[in-house]
Amino acid sequence: MVFLWAFLVGGSICVIGQIMFDVFKLTPGHTLSILVVTGAVLDGFGLYEPLIDFAGAGATIPITSFGNSLVHGAMEEAEKHGLIGVVTGMFEVTSSGISAAIVFAMVGALLFKPKG
């Protein structure tokens, strides 16, 4: 049952993104931004963590989880260190994912020759 809920929730998030492309004719940048902000707002209201508990990877894999991570880290560090914790908390939680993306992109660029 866990796999079914992960598929349905993750698939629903992807369907929403595809509708934003096809129906509303939004650019990928606009769609990405809206989904990240949606995840951040849901976490700000305390609604994204229950979604993660319910759907597992269906809620942690889509881009909405990045917004959740930013706000979650900022709120945790703000409780410990005040206003400066808001800024440092966002980078502390998401730094490993961003670093991995940069490293993998560099390795991919070195291994494969772009066409064009």
From TrEMBL:
The keyword Lipid biosynthesis belongs to this UniProt entry's keyword annotation: no
Annotated signal sequence range: none
Pfam hit, one: SpoVAC_SpoVAEB
Keyword annotations from UniProtKB, A to Z: Membrane, Transmembrane, Transmembrane helix
Transmembrane segments: 6-24, 83-112
Protein name, entry field: Stage V sporulation protein AE
Species name: Paraliobacillus quinghaiensis
